[in-house]
Amino acid sequence: MNLQKLFELQRQLDEHIEQQHPRQPGEDRLAKKILALQVEIGELANEWRGFKFWSNDQKPRREKIHYSVTWIPLRKTDPLLEEYVDALHFILSIGMEYSYRYGEWLPINLGLSSELIPIEYEHITKQFNYMFQQIGYFYDCVADCEIACNSETEEQYEQLFRMFIGLGNMLGFTWEEIEEAYMQKNEVNHQRQANEY
């Protein structure tokens, strides 16, 4: 797991986005990234489908064919993995935002260990539910200085990342697959910014 490489790729993408879409005065971009992460986790759960007790179709969406304008198949992708790496983009981006602690503004990922032990609960439904809870708690730590002590922001970010890695394991992804899919989607995201997405 080479998080430093992914953080660097995400930093480059974030800089590209900042050039195309500069922050507005008073804008809380971190709050928007956290909401975007929750949306992506929701989209991931929707592709997983295992919580849909009302449906006979509870199998994960694992293959999607992308077509050209002339309806010629271009490539197959795994929608579940694609949604997972969309969420990974936001987790990495959130980690590079700054929060006030130890008497100064520091990147949220400051205390992130290079070796993260995944957190996995008994079943995927519980994993998703606790992910949402953890995202909310992390946001409380960042947004409300009265709730968070100096190191709590770092600790909660690490917990969130560990739960996210555990979710990837539970969904059957290897880290190699995740890295490869992240790099492919990162390239697509750069192209989108270049094309005024």
Written account of the structure:
The protein is mainly α and 197 residues long. It has a single domain (3-194), classed as all-alpha NTP pyrophosphatase fold (Orthogonal Bundle). Helices cover 58% and strands 9% of the residues. The chain contains 6 helices and 4 strands, in the order H-H-E-E-H-E-E-H-H-H. It has helices spanning 3-20, 29-48, 79-95, 124-143, 152-170, 175-194; strands spanning 64-67, 73-77, 98-101, 104-107. The strands form 2 sheets. Strands 1-2 form a two-stranded antiparallel sheet. A two-stranded antiparallel sheet has the order 3-4. A hairpin with a 2-residue loop joins strand 3 and strand 4. Helix 1 (3-20) packs across helix 3 (79-95) and helix 4 packs antiparallel against helix 5. The longest helix is centred in the first third of the chain and has 20 residues, at 29-48. It is globular, with a radius of gyration of 17 Å. The protein starts with a helix and ends with a helix. The relative contact order is 0.16.
Keywords:
two-stranded antiparallel ribbon, 9% strand, two-stranded antiparallel sheet, all-alpha NTP pyrophosphatase fold, mainly alpha
Outline:
It is built from 6 helices and 4 strands, in the order ααββαββααα. By secondary structure, the protein is mainly α.
Q: Biggest sheet: strands, sense, closure? A: 2 strands, antiparallel
Basic shape: globular
Number of structurally distinct domains:
1
Question: How do the helices and strands follow one another from N- to C-terminus?
Answer: HHEEHEEHHH
Strand order across the largest sheet: 1-2
Gyration radius (Cα, Å) is 17 Å
The amount of beta strand, in percent, is 5-15%
For this structure, the CATH topology is all-alpha NTP pyrophosphatase fold
